């Protein structure tokens, strides 16, 4: 009984800020402006700007997840083969923990101050090298800019989630491979690769979900239009609602929940598969 009492604040928090909003989104997605059951909200998601926003969100999330996973895995491997108690590893791990959470408006401001129209790097290149970063378009405030900014927190997140898998590779496996006449290629082909593939794919899915659900950074950078789903939902929350489509924002939210749930479900299955190797 005492254990349940201790858990009451946590359960209340989860119920208020997770379960209750999810139920509202789920019910509202199937209701029209009068509260009657309808599928019109969901069918609208497959049309026009709303479908395009889902496509762009998935493309943005997949691209940044792939870039973050590749470069993050390389950085993780570099620190994993070094001294486990070395200064470099401690700095990278600590820095990754900070940078993975450095998002939202502060991250957008940092990029604006660095590579914005009048950013430090932009002005230096324009005044001293003759290179105008915005000669072609205002790319920082469009999907290419979001790709660059999202990658900034995707790489350190990959370091955090992928490092335990690399640390789980036991030296005895490499020694056994060498004693049997195997090479580095055979070790990674038959031992290291198969073991690391599930956690790598799981981390890739986690990065995808992280980028797909990100909002504050995109909202701070993109002031015109709503190219991705979170910004489409912002339009409904700020009152930019067409008559009869009051619950379309909830349908968009339900679509996001479904996409993220699929990604996280596959991630759980992959983690279960590899858990016995990294204990």
From TrEMBL:
Family label: Belongs to the binding-protein-dependent transport system permease family. CysTW subfamily.
Superkingdom field: Bacteria
InterPro entries named in the record: MetI-like, MetI-like_sf
Keyword hit for Transmembrane: yes
Topology relative to the membrane: Multi-pass membrane protein
Protein name, per record: ABC transporter permease
Annotated localization: Cell membrane
Annotated ranges, domain ABC transmembrane type-1: 54-269
């Amino acid at each position: 009984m005492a254990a349940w009492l201790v858990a009451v604040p946590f359960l209340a928090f989860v119920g208020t800020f997770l379960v209750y909003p999810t139920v509202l989104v789920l019910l509202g997605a199937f209701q029209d402006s009068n509260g009657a059951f309808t599928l019109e909200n969901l069918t609208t998601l497959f049309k026009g700007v709303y479908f395009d926003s889902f496509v762009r969100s998935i493309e943005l999330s997949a691209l940044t997840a792939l870039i973050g996973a590749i470069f993050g895995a390389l950085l993780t491997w570099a620190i994993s083969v070094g001294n486990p108690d070395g200064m470099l590893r401690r700095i990278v791990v600590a820095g990754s923990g900070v940078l993975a959470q450095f998002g939202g408006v502060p991250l957008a401001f940092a990029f604006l101050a660095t590579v914005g129209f009048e950013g430090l790097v932009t002005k230096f290149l324009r005044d001293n090298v003759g290179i105008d970063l915005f000669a072609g378009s205002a790319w920082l405030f469009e999907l290419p800019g979001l790709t660059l900014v999202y990658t900034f927190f995707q790489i350190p997140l990959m370091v955090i989630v992928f490092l335990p898998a690399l640390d789980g590779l036991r030296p005895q496996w490499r020694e056994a491979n060498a004693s049997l006449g195997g090479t580095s290629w055979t070790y990674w082909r038959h031992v290291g690769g198969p073991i690391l593939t599930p956690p790598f794919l799981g981390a890739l899915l986690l990065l995808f979900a992280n980028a797909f659900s990100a909002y504050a950074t995109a909202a701070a950078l993109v002031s015109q239009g709503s190219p991705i789903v979170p910004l489409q939902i912002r339009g409904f929350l700020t009152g930019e609602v067409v008559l009869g489509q009051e619950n379309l924002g909830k349908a968009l939210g339900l679509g996001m929940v479904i996409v993220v749930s699929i990604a996280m479900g596959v991630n759980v299955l992959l983690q279960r598969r590899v858990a016995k190797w990294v204990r």
